[in-house]
Amino acid sequence: MVRRTNTYLLVLLATAFLTGWLAFAFATAPARWSLVIHATAGVGVAMVTPWKSLIARHGLERRRPGWWASLLLAVLVLVSLAAGLLHSTGLLLAWGGFTAMEIHVGAAIAAVPFALWHVLARPAFLRRTDLSRRYLMRGGALLAASVGTYSAGEGVVRLFALPGARRRFTGSYDAGSLQPQLLPATQWLFDQVPDIDAGSWRLTVHSPRGTRAWSYEEISRFSDRIEATLDCTGGFYSTQAWEGVWLDRLITDTRHALSLEVRSVTGYSRRFAVEDRGQLLLATRLGGAALDAGHGYPVRLVAPKRRGFWWVKWVTSVHLDEVPQWWQLPFPIQ
Asked: What is the DSSP track for 8-53?
C-alpha cells in the first residue's frame, strides 16, 4: 500500500503543478482544459490523503531524519488544496490581505523544494509489478473517481448558485468590468508603483530605422481604442475600455527583427513576436480618463488574450531584437 499510495500521490501532485502553471500561461481556451485536469488531479490528491495519513503517522512515530520536512510538505499541500477549493467555489476569495488564489499558488510553490527533497530522500524505484494489470486498474479507478467527484462538485456549485458558478474559464472572478474605478491595481511580485513625471518621461522606441523618443504629449494624441479583458493570475478579471496607440503605428520597419521587448521603468519586461505588434496597444487612458499610477501611468501595455503579467505597466521602452519571442522565462521572476 505504501508504494502504491506514494506513486499515485507523486503523479497527481506533478500533474496538478504542471497543469496549474500551464493555465497561468493562457487567457484563452487552453486554460480551461488545463484547469479541468488540474482540478481533477487536486481531487485525486484529496482522495489519496487518508491512506497517506496512515503512512505519515507511522513515519512520525519512527521520527526518521527529515521528518519535519515531510510534515511541512503535507501542511503546504493541504493549505494549497483548501485554498483552491475555497477559490473555485467562491466561498472565500480573500483572507488576510491575500486572495485565495495567491494562497493556493504560494503554498504550491513553497511545497516544490520539499517535494523534490522527499522524492530524493525517500526514493521509490519502479518495479515490474508497478505496471501490472491490477496496479493499472486501481489507478484507473482512482482517476475515474476523481473525474466523477470533480464533476459532481461543479454540479453542486451550479445547483446552489455558489459564487464559483460565475467564474471565467480561467477560474477568475469579475472585478468591476467597464467600471474603471473598481479595477484592482496589482503588481507582479516585487514591483512597486513608481512616481513618474510625465513632463520628463519618454517612450523610447528602438527599431532598424533608429531610435525615436516620444513624449507623453505626443503619445496622448493617439486615440486607438479596444475593449479588452485583463485576466490576473491573482484570481480576478476585468473587461475595460482602453485607449492609446497600436504598436504597429510606432514601429513600421521590422527588418531582421523576430521579437520586440516592452520594458517598464521598474525593469520588468516581456517579449512578444514582432508579428503581434498590431495587436498590442500602448494605453494612455482607461475608460476615457488618463491612467492613474496604480494602473500604469503614464503608459501601459494592453495585450489582449494574454494573462495580466504580460500587460507591462509604466512602459519606458520598446526594443526590436533578432532573438525569438520565447527567449525569456515563461514567468518573470522580478
From this structure: HHHHHHHHHHHHHHHHHH-SSHHHHHHHHHHHHHHHHHHHHHHHHH
Handedness of CA 39, 42, 44, 50 (dihedral sign): negative
> 177 vs 102, 118, 239, 331, CA distance in Å?
21, 44, 5, 26
Q: Which amino acid appears at position 224 of this protein?
A: D
Sequence-ordered list of residues with C-beta below 8 angstroms from that of 247, at least 6 positions apart, any chain: 260, 277, 278, 280, 281, 282, 318
Residue 213 parent element (H or E) = strand 210-215
What pLDDT, on the 0 to 100 scale, is given for residue 59?
66
C-alpha 236/C-alpha 174 separation (Å) is: 6
Q: What is the pLDDT of residue 125?
A: 64
The average pLDDT across 228-236 equals 95
| Nearest residue to 22 via CA among 14, 10, 13, 30 | 30
Q: pLDDT tens for residues 125-163?
A: 666 666 677 777 888 899 999 999 999 999 999 999 999
In one letter, which amino acid is 269? Answer: S
Going by pLDDT thresholds of 50, 70 and 90, the confidence category of residue 260 is very high
How wide is the angle at C-alpha 239 spanned by C-alphas 236 and 243, nearest 5°? Answer: 130
Domains of the chain (ranges, CATH numbers): 2-167 (no CATH), 180-321 (3.90.420.10)
> Beta strand pairing status for 236-246 and 173-174?
parallel
| pLDDT band of 123, cuts 50, 70, 90 | confident
Q: Angle at the Cα of 202 (from 250 to 268), degrees rounded to 5?
A: 85
- Do 6 and 55 contact (CB within 8 A), yes or no? yes
Distance CA 38, CA 227 (A): 30
Short-list 257, 266, 249, CA closest to 300: 266
- The predicted pLDDT at position 130 comes to 65
C-alpha cell at 165: 458558478
pLDDT at 239: 98
pTM comes to: 0.89
